Amino acid sequence: xxxxxxxxxxxxxxxxxxxxxxxxxxxxxxxxxxxxxxxxxxxxxxxxxxxxxxxxxxxxxxxxxxxxxxxxxxxxxxxxxxxxxxxxxxxxxxxxxxx
Length: 99
Prior knowledge:
Elements: H1 12-25, H2 37-52, H3 65-73, H4 79-91
Helix pairs in contact: 1-2
């Protein structure tokens, strides 16, 4: 994917899958009890690929001032708030279901 001109938004699922696979398939320590340097190097290579695509920002055009303002000043909420909302929505009966 490095042949692609940046900026690019890569599919995060691919990197999460690679990280998970590396974490699960490679032991943290070698048989002699030392850190598994191969595993650490592999993890770093995956993270480094993700960082590569974040180096070049998207050139947002000034003619889209309304969108630019919304992206810049949109409210940010905590993970806890999102979690609480998701829990609440899962407890609310759907249309046609009984409470």
